[in-house]
Amino acid sequence: MQYSEKVMDHFMNPRNVGVIENPDGYGKIGNASCGDMMEIFLRIEDDIIKDVKFRTFGCASAIATSSISTEMILGKKVSEALEVTNKAVAEALDGLPPQKMHCSVLAEDAIKAAIEDYLKKKNN
Fold first, then answer.
1. Is-catalytic flag, 59?
2. What positions does the domain NIF system FeS cluster assembly NifU N-terminal occupy (predicted)?
3. 103 annotated active-site
């Protein structure tokens, strides 16, 4: 299995690792096929993602997709973050091995779960 330099960089030096206490949005997604688990924490002000953190238990691809997806949504409007797809996450990493594409789906789903949590809280 060959990883791109970007995958290795984000795996060895993950960005935005951690937890936000009392987040505005929180999403937790697991992939039963490989056992990876991803959590996304969002701080949102005026519908702009001001801070994002993640915790991921998983392989190099899961950590790299978590890291780069947080970079992709930081500073974006909530509506723009909802448009991030697993394909865009994989492309931002210069590709993933075919058997690891499910990790990019995990990142997309975790972001969407955190935003759905935010929207649910906002509308209550």
1. no
2. 2-123
3. yes
